[in-house]
Design brief:
Helix 8 packs across helix 9 and helix 13 packs across helix 15. It is built from 21 helices and 29 strands. The protein has a 5-stranded antiparallel beta sheet, sandwiched between helices. It has a 5-stranded mixed beta sheet with strand order 22-29-28-25-26, with no helix packed on it. The longest helix is centred in the first third of the chain and has 27 residues. By secondary structure, it is of the alpha+beta class.
Length: 787
């Protein structure tokens, strides 16, 4: 072998290696610029349908298409037209360069270019005037692109950035705008059209019909000759027309789309939501039709959210009756608006009370006027029911029993439970809330309430609502109040048990009764109502009407009202929100009859119908009750108590004054002092225990009267010149005949045990004492200030 041959063997590889090293170094020093502006952000439905599109940061409609979304014929057509040797060259096609150079020199002007698809992509990434220097830079960038990306990636990037006139870029955008189709669904004529327009977007828009048609048909024939299309496809394509107008890009479900678009999905232009467009359409249509007649009553808006209980995915989301109704503030998102929840938090309170063993469903409680340290709640209808069961109190949404129960449980424990369930306003304002919280004296959202009821449907397991497919939701954290998991429940840091399965089941059972008296009037005689557990709520001033319901499949939350907070006399959850709730559940009804079954920890027992307690020998009427063994109260019934009286039943004896003979034992109702006061005030007859033996000297202060109208240590304001009076009322045990009112140790008046007495008080401190006919007394101190 000659020296020169050996020299070439060494020089050629060395030159190649040197050039490669130079390229790598240059690639490192001058990295690819990338595209300065991202894609349009697109929100997809749960099944992948485009739901809502947003402009890119540079105000372009540039919707990204994955390679798999683009038909093979479209790729073949583009490669045939723009770069036949795309899969064979390293980014630059030397043959095309030589041919273009020869043609340009022969004609004395630029007649053809040598740009490959990769070079065109480089020019799209880094636009510059068409000079020799720019061409050389394009060539270098093309080599870089081939070094860093696969051919499939390069082709996909190219197709996603092709210009189609105006602010339309990319084949997917163009297919949707000009044809209303996805790239894989295009006909041969349509996909050829998309290969032609980018050559001169302004001159070849579909609106320029003749020019586009001529160019399109010329390329259809050429591609048909190369058998990219069959003869039949070619013939059909030549005769296929096209619309010369744009199709609007989808803008469905705007409230949830805008929310997800701005939800911190940074850098993600494809957001696949959990929204089911079929259910979304049902909700939007029902909501739009339902709200129209309500506007004649000045009730202008509503919001609806539908949650799949098994996955916690939000399947429908309507923040208002119409996003584009500026007259009614339609762009306000009623799902996230903080409003007063009315009575909708009561099921959570009763659920907590069941778990604490304070009550059970058939427990009898009182619904009578009570003073809670100066706070005197009233029922929605401004009446009281007297003695009721727990399930009646919840079904009727009675206020006094709920406030009384919250007072027993403790405000801190209840707000802790709600904080764990991500009630943000309540968590931030825990120190500012009072007993009125359970009646709506707080702020919450439809989203939070629906999540709470979905937790009840899921056996007491709370999980965050999911809005994005394959997203597990946000974590509620592990702050104070988070309870350890027990029973059988899914794993995950975003899972919190807020109640036992048993108490959740008992709440569901109470809320399922379709004979409930709070059904809307027109629904009372209706047949075929869907089986759901549901609760209503109406805020103070009738500003908000709520209805939240669930079955085994879905939880649906509904808010009705006005976004400006205007109260309407006719607005309430029962008559305004409930019909829409049943309407939507009817349309979502599935074929099966799946319902909730009692969990293992729930058992059933007979209890006394008069008290809800374990029956005693004198309990003749008994009812079946679900209860939690070892947790639910198990006291023996005491709705009757034995009283010793004389033979005529005129006087009663205590154990201290019981005579040796001449007495008898009689069973009398064991009413609470509050209930007796209510019966007396409402003139409701009841069995009076005879007055106590007047000769008895033994007195027990434990059963003495209670002052219910004033609060010990409170200050009361009266206006000067007006003869304002303070109300004095007491509650006493059954058998009390009279009470004596003293003010500053001076007798004011003798009165009946439930009689109202009025005190015209002067400014200053006052000691008020109430003494019953057995000498038992209650004492408070108040201050009166004159304005």
């Amino acid at each position: 072998m000659s020296f020169s041959a050996k020299h070439r063997i060494v020089i050629i590889p060395a030159t190649i290696i040197a050039l490669l090293l130079i390229f790598i170094l240059t690639d490192f020093i001058f990295p690819l610029p990338g595209f300065h502006h991202g894609y349009s952000r697109v929100v997809y439905s749960s099944d992948g349908e485009v739901m809502h599109c947003f402009l890119s940061s540079d105000e372009k409609w540039r919707i990204r298409a994955e390679y798999e979304e683009i038909s093979g014929d479209l790729c073949d057509a583009v490669i045939f037209k723009e770069d036949k040797y795309f899969y064979r060259h390293p980014g630059i096609n030397p043959i095309s360069v030589v041919r273009a150079l020869w043609n340009n020199l022969a004609s004395g002007k630029r007649t053809s270019g040598a740009s490959t698809i990769t070079m065109q992509l480089a020019r799209l990434m880094d636009p510059a005037p068409r000079t020799l220097g720019s061409k050389l830079r394009e060539a270098f960038r093309a080599l870089q692109l081939e070094w860093h990306y696969s051919k499939k990636e390069i082709l996909t990037l190219y197709l996603n950035h092709l210009p189609y006139g105006g602010n339309i870029e990319g084949v997917k955008t163009a297919a949707m705008v000009w044809f209303g189709e996805q790239p894989r669904e295009l006909s041969p004529a349509q996909l050829v059209t998309l290969t032609v327009i980018p050559n001169n977007p302004n001159a070849l828009m579909p609106s320029k019909r003749n020019a586009l048609l001529e160019n399109r048909n010329r390329w259809i024939i050429r591609m048909g000759n190369k058998e990219i299309f069959t003869k039949e496809e070619t013939e059909d394509a030549l005769h296929e027309g096209f619309a010369n107008h744009k199709n609007p890009l989808p803008r469905k479900s705007p409230h949830i789309s805008y929310r997800l678009s701005g939800s911190g999905q940074s850098g993600n232009d494809r957001i696949q939501s959990t929204i089911d467009l079929r259910i979304q359409s049902i909700v939007e249509t029902a909501l739009s039709n339902y709200i129209r007649p309500l506007r004649n009553m000045q009730i202008t808006n509503a919001a609806v959210i539908v949650v799949d209980n098994k996955t916690m995915e939000v399947k429908a989301y309507a923040g208002s009756a119409g996003f584009y109704e500026d007259r009614y503030s339609g762009q306000v998102d009623g799902v996230r608006a903080v409003r007063s929840p009315g009575s909708t938090l009561k099921p959570a309170l009763y659920m907590l009370a069941f778990d604490r063993g304070i009550i059970s469903p058939k427990s009898c409680i009182t619904d009578v006027p009570i003073n809670f340290g100066g706070y005197r709640p009233e029922n929605f209808d401004e009446t009281y029911k007297g003695k009721v069961t727990v399930e009646e109190a919840l079904a009727l949404s009675l206020n006094v029993p709920a406030v009384n129960l919250l007072d027993q449980i403790g405000l801190n424990d209840f707000t802790t439970l709600l904080s764990v369930a991500h009630f943000d306003w309540i968590n931030k304002n825990r120190k500012k809330t009072g007993l009125s919280l359970i009646l709506g004296g707080c702020g919450t959202t439809l989203e939070e309430l629906t999540g709470l009821y979905a937790a009840i449907a899921n056996k007491g397991i709370w999980q965050p609502l999911r809005y994005i497919k394959e997203d597990k939701g946000y974590s509620p954290g592990k702050g104070k109040g988070t309870q350890k998991r027990k029973h059988s429940e899914p794993e995950g840091t975003d899972t919190v048990r807020i109640s036992s399965p048993g108490s959740a089941y008992m709440i569901t059972d109470i809320l399922t009764d379709l004979k409930r008296p709070d059904l809307p009037n027109e629904y009372l005689e209706s047949a075929g109502l869907p089986k759901i557990a549901w609760k209503t709520g109406t805020s103070y001033g009738r500003r908000d009407g709520w209805a939240v319901g669930y079955n085994a499949d879905y939880t649906i939350g509904i808010w009705t009202g006005n976004f400006d907070g205007k109260g309407i006399p006719e607005l309430n959850g029962t008559d305004i929100a409930v019909p829409l709730l049943f309407m939507i559940f009817n349309q979502l009804r599935k074929g099966g009859n799946e319902w909730f079954y009692p969990p293992e920890e729930v058992d059933f027992r007979l209890v006394c119908s008069e008290s809800g307690m374990v029956p005693d020998t004198f309990c003749h009427n008994r009812v079946m009750e679900a209860f939690l063994p070892g947790i639910s109260p198990s006291m023996r019934c005491n709705h009757l108590k034995p009283v010793f009286t004389d033979g005529a039943g005129n006087i009663s004896y205590c154990s201290e004054c019981l005579p040796e003979k001449g007495y008898k034992k009689v069973l009398y109702p064991n009413y609470s002092p509050e209930l007796i006061s209510y019966y007396e005030e409402m003139s409701i007859p009841y069995s009076h225990i005879p007055g106590h033996n007047p000769r008895c000297t033994y007195v027990s202060q434990e059963s003495g009267p209670k002052i219910t109208s004033l609060t010990d240590g409170a200050e009361y304001l009266v206006f000067a010149g007006r003869k304002q009076k303070l109300l004095l009322q007491s509650s006493c045990l059954n058998g009390t005949k009279a009470v004596y009112w003293y003010v500053n140790r001076k007798l004011l008046k003798k009165a009946g045990p439930s009689e109202s007495v009025y005190l015209e008080a002067s400014a200053g401190n006052h000691n008020i004492t109430c003494v019953d006919d057995m000498g038992r007394s209650a004492n408070i101190n108040v201050r009166v200030s004159v304005l």
